[in-house]
Design brief:
Length: 257
């Protein structure tokens, strides 16, 4: 008698798996893509094409360098190579997105390696979801939604773990455990990630003084921002602005890295 895994393998072999791609095209709020080992797009569902402002098969065979601004490509390349070269799974990476109408949404992305039948990594696949839209309906977020929403909307002000835990009626220790279980990072590191992305966005899309950006993004002062930014990005906020500010205006998905 065949095992479940054997039945699945036989069915996929018989159908070519094409029905899977048809099903993915029907997912309006889940954005899925696959790149080969050279980081060229070899598949993406309809929703991802729309998110990237492209239709049909226009992205197939292209790399991020050909369709996205430089300041985003650096991030995409780093993440993709980590997955392809090391087999790393990138889990629940939070990203800020500029919508076509100029508004902002928060997305969460997972990337994982794609293996061939010999067990060798031949590419990277990714799934991106809109947190803003799914916060109230996705099991992963429902229990902690008030705390996550507070971080995404109020990151400019001081937020203690005690304050976040109170929004979901948990003790700080319980909240820390539950949050790390669902998001893979502590609330403190998640908040730092949100603030860093917000600062990156303002540096590349505005001419605000860096001291003002620090304040607006929840850093105690410019020195605090410079220290954290240099440690995370490998360059100072000023260097980041000089390198990437012009590229932020190019077409493509406006993910803040």
């Amino acid at each position: 008698m065949k095992t479940g895994a054997q039945l699945r393998a036989d069915f996929l072999a018989a159908t070519g798996g094409s029905f899977v791609f048809d099903a993915l095209d029907e997912l309006e709020d889940i954005y899925f893509f696959v790149k080969d080992a050279e980081r060229r797009f070899v598949y993406y569902n309809r929703s991802f094409g729309t998110l990237m402002w492209h239709e049909h098969d226009e992205l197939l065979g292209l790399r991020d360098e050909e369709i996205s601004p430089e300041y985003l490509v650096e991030k995409y390349r780093r993440d993709d190579e980590e997955v392809i070269n090391n087999g790393t799974r990138i889990v629940n990476m939070t990203e800020l997105v500029h919508n076509l109408d100029g508004s902002y949404d928060w997305f969460i992305t997972n990337k994982f390696p794609v293996y061939d039948t010999a067990g060798e990594i031949v590419g990277v696949a990714g799934v991106t979801r809109n947190i803003t839209k799914r916060m109230s309906s996705t099991k992963q977020f429902v229990a902690l939604a008030p705390a996550v929403e507070l971080m995404l909307k109020e990151f400019s002000r001081p937020l203690r773990v005690e304050d976040l835990a109170q929004t979901v009626a948990l003790s700080p220790s319980q909240f820390n455990r539950q949050f790390k279980k669902r998001f893979g990072v502590t609330p403190h590191n998640y908040l730092r990630q949100v603030r860093m992305m917000a600062a990156s966005n303002l540096l590349t899309t505005t001419e605000l003084p860096i001291s003002d950006i620090a304040t607006q993004c929840g850093f105690s002062d410019q020195s605090h921002l410079t220290h954290d930014f240099s440690a995370k990005r490998g360059m100072s906020p000023r260097q980041y602005r000089e390198r990437f500010s012009g590229s932020a205006q190019q077409p493509g998905l406006k993910l803040v890295v």
